[in-house]
């Protein structure tokens, strides 16, 4: 069975993020994409090399499909749960 990213990307991202930060929490400027600073804030253990690997089209931003692929492949762990102090 082949999973095509794009159609399933948003639901997969939302499921993966439900235990931690939501997509809206990560996308702080509300442009629908995730910059390195946004991703770094949500995934504190992610370094610049991981970001560059996740950003498969090398446009400097991560979209939902790229994020879903990174979470699905284990390149990224779901973000830590946010508490009232976060």
Q: Give helix and strand order, one letter per element, not per position.
A: HHHHH
CATH class: Mainly Alpha
The stretches of 5 or more residues where confidence is low (pLDDT under 50) are: 1-12
In the CATH hierarchy, the architecture is Orthogonal Bundle
The number of distinct helices, counting runs of at least 4 residues, comes to 5
Give me the Rg, rounded: 12 Å
Q: Total strand count, please?
A: 0
Give the integer mean of the pLDDT values. 78
Task: Measure the end-to-end span.
Answer: 40 Å
Biggest β-sheet, characterized? none
- When the domains are counted, the total is 1
CATH-level-4 superfamily name: EF-hand
> What coarse outline follows from CA principal-axis ratios?
globular
How much strand content do the residues show?
under 5%
CATH topology: Recoverin, domain 1
Keywords: Signal
GO molecular function: calcium ion binding
Signal peptide: 1-23
Protein name: EF-hand domain-containing protein
């Amino acid at each position: 069975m082949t999973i095509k990213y794009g159609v399933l990307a948003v639901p997969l991202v939302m499921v993966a993020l439900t235990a931690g930060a939501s997509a809206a929490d990560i996308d702080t400027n509300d442009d629908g994409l995730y910059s390195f600073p946004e991703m770094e804030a949500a995934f504190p253990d992610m370094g610049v090399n991981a970001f560059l690997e996740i950003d498969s089209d090398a446009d400097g931003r991560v979209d939902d499909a790229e994020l879903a692929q990174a979470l699905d492949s284990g390149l990224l762990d779901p973000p830590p749960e946010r508490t009232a102090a976060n």
